TrEMBL record:
GO terms for molecular function: flavin adenine dinucleotide binding; sarcosine oxidase activity. This is FAD-dependent oxidoreductase. PANTHER family: FAD DEPENDENT OXIDOREDUCTASE DOMAIN-CONTAINING PROTEIN (PTHR10961:SF7), PEROXISOMAL SARCOSINE OXIDASE (PTHR10961). It comes from the Bacteria. The keyword Flavoprotein applies. Keywords: FAD, Flavoprotein, Oxidoreductase. Its cofactor is FAD. Residues 9-359 form the FAD dependent oxidoreductase domain.
Length: 380
């Protein structure tokens, strides 16, 4: 049956962080929005689940910092509409390659972020559960996003402004035309229907490429299964910041990826290796780290975090969808607006990306050049 009831302006395919943020931004402008998500709320099969994400401002690139600064303000605006805090500003410490640390400090200081460079002794006096080497960058106004709360807040705000959120329905196909977009949707009971709208946003995470195959020539999107873990502190009196270990050269090659982490209240201290997992089909995951990755993570915790029990890791699983450059894919092609390639670093930018997607979908403006498809083709 052809379902055109409701006269929708925009379909949104994918109800993770980015799809919900786009729904929020569009609905608050008075746009009529219908979001379709294949799973239920707070499912664990994608990239948006979990209690916390790093609110990490340790970037040198202006285009990432532009998004971060905008997102910070929008998180605060969304937070004002909720009953619980969405941000925890306990600070972020970044260490590793001295050139990277100093360049990042310079970039943040130029934007008047509250940053300081500490020596290892100063850092260890503050955070006794951690070991430090070389210059340590402290970002005082960073920390965590309470991710699960944030998803609920985005959904609630979008629905208050009239957005419809349909869960446990899977988009089977997308057909753009000169008049708009038609999608075929399968509900949980197996029934199928079609929906049409002048515009659609595809924010489908690990399912982006199969949905858009033959429709848009996307840059390569690598889907991997990643496995951070929560570790138990040895001393509950220790104070923990969020953190990055940004290495280079042989040290990075030996570890396989940089390291990130943060306190997750009630769960422990999350520690993860960035982008070290195997490529997977998102519908056929193992949900288990390889023994090699697990041992590398455990050894890193033992070396750098004396305040954690390295044998206490409680593993979690998520997907990453990444481009070769690790820059996002944000673009509009005909009636389709594309959002992909965020995994491992996208969540903190969520509300700003929602604004970018809303601008693109309504024709107000195109996304920044660094994220558009053509920029990826030039660097592939």
């Amino acid at each position: 049956m052809l379902d055109t009831a409701g006269h929708v302006d925009h379909l949104i395919i994918g109800g993770g962080a980015m799809g919900l943020a786009a729904a929020w931004q569009l609905a608050r402008r008075g746009e009529r929005v219908h979001l379709i998500e294949q799973f239920g709320p707070h499912h664990t099969l994608g990239a948006s689940h979990g209690s916390t994400r790093n609110l990490n401002d340790a970037y040198r690139e202006e285009f990432f910092l532009d998004l971060f600064d905008e997102a910070f303000g929008l998180w605060r605006s969304l937070e004002a509409e909720t009953t619980a805090p969405l941000l925890g500003l306990h600070g972020l410490v970044t260490q590793g390659d001295p050139e990277i640390i100093e360049a990042t400090y310079d970039a943040l200081r130029a934007r008047t972020h509250d940053v300081a460079l500490l020596d290892p002794a100063e850092a260890e006096a503050r955070w006794a559960g951690m070991r430090f080497r070389g210059p340590v960058l402290l970002s005082a106004d960073a920390g965590i996003v309470y991710a699960a709360r944030a998803l609920d807040a985005l959904a609630a705000a979008a629905q208050r402004d009239g957005a419809r959120i349909e869960r446990e329905s899977r988009v089977l196909s997308i057909s753009p035309s000169a008049r708009g977009v038609t999608v075929e949707v399968q509900a949980a009971d197996g029934s199928r229907r079609t929906l049409t709208a002048p515009s659609a946003i595809v924010a489908a995470g690990a399912w982006s490429r199969p949905l858009l195959e033959g429709i848009i020539d996307l840059p390569r999107l690598r889907v991997t299964e990643e496995h951070p873990a929560h570790y138990a502190p040895r001393d509950p009196s220790h104070i923990w910041p969020s953190f990055n270990h940004l290495f280079a050269g042989e040290e990075l090659a030996a570890l396989g990826g940089n390291v990130y982490g943060m306190p997750s209240p009630g769960e422990g201290i999350k520690v993860g290796l960035h982008l070290v997992g195997h490529e997977v089909d998102p519908d056929a995951r193992t949900l288990r780290a390889s023994d090699e990755v697990r041992e590398r993570r455990r050894a890193h915790v033992a070396e750098w975090f004396p305040g954690l029990d390295p044998d206490s890791g409680d593993e979690i699983s998520c997907t990453y969808t990444s481009t070769e450059s690790e820059r996002f894919v944000l673009d509009r092609v005909g009636p389709l607006t594309i959002a992909a390639g965020f995994s491992g670093q996208g969540f903190k930018f969520t509300p700003a990306i929602g604004r970018v997607l809303a601008d693109a979908a309504t024709g107000a403006s195109l996304p920044p050049a660094e994220f558009r498809i053509a920029s990826h083709a030039q660097t592939a």
